[in-house]
Amino acid sequence: MQRRHFTSLISSATGAALLAAHAPGWAQAMSQRAALAADRILILVELKGGNDGLNTVVPYADASYYQLRPVIGIKPDAVIKLDAQAGLHPALQALLPLWEQGELGIVQGVGYPQPNLSHFRSIEIWETGSKSSEYLQEGWVTRGLKAGLAGSANFSTEGVLIGSSEFGALAGARAVSLNNPEAFVNQSRLAHGMDQAQAKGNAALQYVLQVENDINQAAQGLRGEKYSFLTPFSPGAFGNGVKAAAQVVASQKGKGGVPVITLTLGSFDTHQNQPGTHANLLKQLAEGLAALKGALTELGAWDRTLVMTFSEFGRRPRQNNSNGTDHGTAAPHFVAGGAVRGGLYGQAPDLSRLDGTQNVSYSTDFRQLYASVAKDWWGVKPDTVTRGHFEPLKFLKT
Length: 398
Description:
By secondary structure, the protein is of the alpha/beta class. The chain has helices at 3-14, 32-37, 63-68, 96-100, 119-128, 140-146, 181-187, 203-222, 237-250, 274-298, 366-378, 382-386, and strands spanning 41-48, 57-58, 80-81, 87-88, 104-111, 159-162, 175-177, 260-266, 305-310, 331-336, 343-345, 364-365.
């Protein structure tokens, strides 16, 4: 039997888990800072489909914005004003307390050179941290973990993906995909760990046994009493995903921890009738992040959690004939957490100077976000994660 067939059998048997290939051995921790970082959590929130940045962080004082968007532009009296130039979409009201408490950062104009406007290719660029012209197999988070994050041997699993079976930024890591931690723990009992020595000489069977052992390790780490949160969670898939993420964090008390959790919300591919769809998605995002803060604060974990959004691209500045927006380039992204230094970072897009494709130019390379996570959150060399020098941003207090 071939390895692929064995893997299929194991996936069917567990009924709940999809495990990536076992990552290579970990390098020794590079610094004391990395050792402290082993207890930290990174939660990545994918805004799937390409979020419209201009209607998320609204340049309400810019007349060009309303010339480009006479119908779908957010009116100045509806904007949640952050300063004299920029404000939030009214559906993001639930984020206002985070902003006022200095725990929400907004990084403006995030993109990359030679942008690709294909959903599949551009998200691959973001997830692997590649140049637009190169193809990488390993996720940027996986490189960060390998670069020397201490405590890896004790991690229950290197990542948990909620709402998606695509490993993306965790490609190549020992990660598990699930929506319901309790169901995963229960069904993981169907996988029985064995000594790989029993499969000596059979590479395919050794691989399958490694997968089973990893499932058991992840389940052991997630096993524990179900925590009853006082914080209410919004109904729907994203609200349930946020609750599952909080439950994963709750299950880690006194254990090795899960350093990375990913969530997915979408679709933001708003080619037509954007206003209603976009408002609903942004409301889910804001209420989800507010609930995440509430739940993690209950657990005493908010100060050691960094939440960061990402999306494959933004949308074009000019509305289309269907009251929507087409694939664009740069867009703002949120960072939140008890260790975040709130405020606006980077430059807002210049709507008076669109490029040849009628898109805005980026001002912040997305790999600067990754460099910031690597240096200031994990305490590892940023260049090993970004594969080149990108100046970290200063949105973290530590």
